[in-house]
Amino acid sequence: MRLSHPQAPFQGIPAEDVFFAANDQYVQMGVAYIILNMQEEIYPERPLQLYIDIQSQASARNLLLGALLGRAEQIRAGFPQLKGRIYTEISPTQFDLTTFYTQNGFSAGDAREEYVFPLPRGGFQAPMGCEFASVALQTLQDQQNFVARLNRHRLSPIPHDFLTLQMQQPYFLALGFYRAGHPVAEMLATGASPDTAALVMLYVQRDMRRRGVGKALLQAGADLLAQRGVHSAVTQVFAANAPQMGLMRSLGGSRKRIINAIPHVNIG
Length: 268
Hints:
This protein has 2 domains: 2-87, Aminopeptidase (3-Layer(aba) Sandwich), CATH 3.40.630; 120-230, 3-Layer(aba) Sandwich (Aminopeptidase). 26% of the residues lie in helices and 32% in strands. The strands form 2 sheets. A 7-stranded mixed beta sheet has the order 7-8-9-10-11-6-12, with helices on one face. A 6-stranded mixed beta sheet has the order 1-2-3-4-5-13, covered by helices on one side. The chain is α+β, with helices and mostly antiparallel strands.
């Protein structure tokens, strides 16, 4: 079995972060890559998030995983003071891949899950010194700035095209709390019908967390959605993310399905 890098970036990924595996007859057996994703907002205790993906025949998986782990050590050497994790996402029905990763020391204790929850009703109170407003989305720059703020708090980035598409939906909402024009918390909800209403994203700046700010913003959005006949919504959360799971419990949310398992191994 032989390893090689592509001659040029692969799907936008630098060539040194991509590995091809081929057998002794030079028949390609698989491809794998690693992507550095700094996430100081979502995982302040482990901001160095290294996503790996292996698409290969079973006979080449161990070789490709070894190459990715070696590359992960090289990347980590550039951030010696940071803790992090190496992770991937797989379908919960891919039992062979689950076994492969767990046998190689990965933990199966995280997952991307879909929850349905009743929208909280009642009066909301904006944080002291803050105003409640719709997100400014009049210009292309406004939209790009909003997407950038959301993506600082996400593992999987939202593209601008996604935002422009959702802005046409009848249940689209983009709301926030602002202090002196600076966002304290923002949310994005959308949907084509009351039964498909979804909370795409809600974030709170780190220094304002654990004060009920996120729930208050959700209540403000829920009041507006209720006027359009929406009383519940779906959202995606990470099982290992304590703040996200705490919010779901406080809202009486129930898990609808597991979207992806997230095998991972902590580093540092």
